[in-house]
């Protein structure tokens, strides 16, 4: 777990877990540059889009503007990017999110890196698609609208903000030409545009990806050794699986915060009859992980070494802990160092992100 474009260590923001090994150990992978057994770690150039929201450049560019526009909030002071900044690996760099008005949340802002490759969304998995998350995110009680009720603002005020902007009228007409003019700007079309943009936040050209494709010099010997630990003794790939370094599952990592009486229930908020889900959070991708400190869903690990040490000792609070965390790992100092070096090889080196010019 270390420091994407557009990590858990299972909750790394997130968490590690336990997994497959090199071929010499279990037959799954051969840790050699370009070996065919590694191809499953490669991601498509672009995430798939659903049939009812086929990706287009016009929708994506519109969604990019909306994502960074504070007029999308009822107060006009908060945007999606308030918690998802490209310079922080599409997180916010805080241990846990802070909402408008200063309210400190129990969980960190999850990364948007490679969100389009996932199959379930949010720390507790309450959203089945990016579109539904983007739709719900516009609500009066949603994160972007914290403080909206207190300010006496009404549901849907952000749509009035957007409709009043001539530049947006033109952009929506280009993005949704199949719709009548009076239906082009709506909560649904806003969600579709934002989801289309979020699918462009892709990290799939890291040194690790280049090494998997056959470039022997893309990773150092220490990083290759780290990959062997990752798929072998560290058992990390059990949860941070190919190709996006996540199993889209939920795990309790035994974090100290779970011992608190008011701890966040995680997946149990959605599956209240399943006691095993108490304190289980979604596995985040490890791609661009080195950019996204602090780590775990509660932001309790300041750096990736603290994450590795947590997994190595098998967690702290054993109640309801994931079976894969049992017993710890027993990694040597060199194995930890190699594992950290491997995490560094998961960052894609891209051009600096260019913020959009907002319509007027």
Strand content: under 5%
Please identify which CATH superfamily of the largest domain we are dealing with: Cytochrome c-like domain
> How many helix segments?
9
- Counting DSSP E segments of at least 2 residues, the number of strands comes to 2
Seen as an oligomer or otherwise, the chain set is single chain
Taken together, the total number of domains comes to 2
What does this structure look like?
Helix 1 packs antiparallel against helix 4 (166-175), helix 1 (57-67) packs across helix 5 (187-198) and helix 2 (130-136) packs across helix 5. The N and C termini lie far apart (42 Å). This protein has helices at residues 57-67, 130-136, 157-163, 166-175, 187-198, 207-212, 221-231, 304-312, 333-344, and strands spanning 250-251, 281-282. Mean pLDDT is 90; it is low at 1-27. The radius of gyration is 21 Å and the shape is globular. It folds into two domains: 36-45 and 204-344, Cytochrome Bc1 Complex, Chain D, domain 2, CATH 1.10.760.10; 57-198, Cytochrome c-like domain (Cytochrome Bc1 Complex, Chain D, domain 2). The protein has nine helices and two strands; from the N terminus they run H-H-H-H-H-H-H-E-E-H-H. Strands 1-2 form a two-stranded antiparallel ribbon. The longest helix is centred in the middle third of the chain and has 12 residues, at 187-198. Helix content is 24%, strand content 1%. With 360 residues, the chain is an all-alpha fold.
């Amino acid at each position: 777990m270390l420091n994407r474009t557009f990590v858990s260590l299972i909750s790394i923001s997130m968490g590690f877990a336990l997994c497959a090994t090199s071929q010499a150990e279990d037959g799954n992978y051969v840790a050699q540059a370009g070996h065919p057994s590694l191809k499953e770690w490669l991601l498509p150039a672009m995430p798939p889009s659903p049939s009812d929201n086929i990706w287009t450049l016009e929708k994506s560019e519109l969604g990019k503007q909306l994502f960074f526009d504070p007029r999308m909030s009822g107060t006009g002071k908060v945007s999606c990017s308030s918690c998802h900044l490209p310079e922080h690996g599409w997180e916010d760099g805080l241990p846990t999110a802070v909402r408008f008005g200063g309210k400190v949340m129990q969980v960190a802002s999850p990364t948007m890196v490679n969100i389009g490759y996932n199959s379930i969304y949010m720390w507790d998995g309450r959203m089945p698609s990016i579109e539904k998350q983007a739709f719900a995110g516009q609500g009066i009680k949603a994160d972007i609208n914290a403080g909206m009720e207190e300010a006496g603002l009404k549901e849907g005020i952000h749509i009035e903000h957007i409709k009043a902007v001539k530049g947006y009228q033109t952009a929506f007409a280009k993005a949704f030409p199949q719709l009548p003019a009076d239906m082009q700007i709506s909560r649904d079309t806003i969600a579709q545009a934002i989801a289309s943009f979020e699918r462009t936040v892709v990290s799939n050209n890291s040194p690790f990806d280049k090494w998997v494709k056959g470039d022997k010099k893309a990773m150092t010997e220490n990083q290759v050794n780290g990959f062997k630990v990752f798929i072998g003794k560290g058992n990390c790939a059990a949860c941070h699986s190919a190709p996006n370094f996540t199993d889209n599952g939920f795990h309790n990592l035994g974090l100290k915060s779970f011992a608190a009486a008011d701890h966040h229930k995680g997946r149990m908020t959605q599956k209240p009859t399943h006691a095993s889900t108490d304190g289980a959070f979604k596995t985040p991708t490890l791609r661009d992980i080195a950019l996204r400190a602090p780590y775990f869903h509660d932001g309790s690990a300041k750096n990736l070494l603290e994450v590795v040490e947590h997994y190595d000792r098998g967690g702290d609070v054993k109640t309801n802990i994931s079976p894969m965390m049992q017993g710890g790992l027993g990694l040597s100092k060199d194995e930890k160092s190699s594992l950290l070096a491997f995490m560094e090889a998961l960052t894609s080196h891209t051009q600096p992100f260019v913020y959009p010019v907002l319509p007027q």
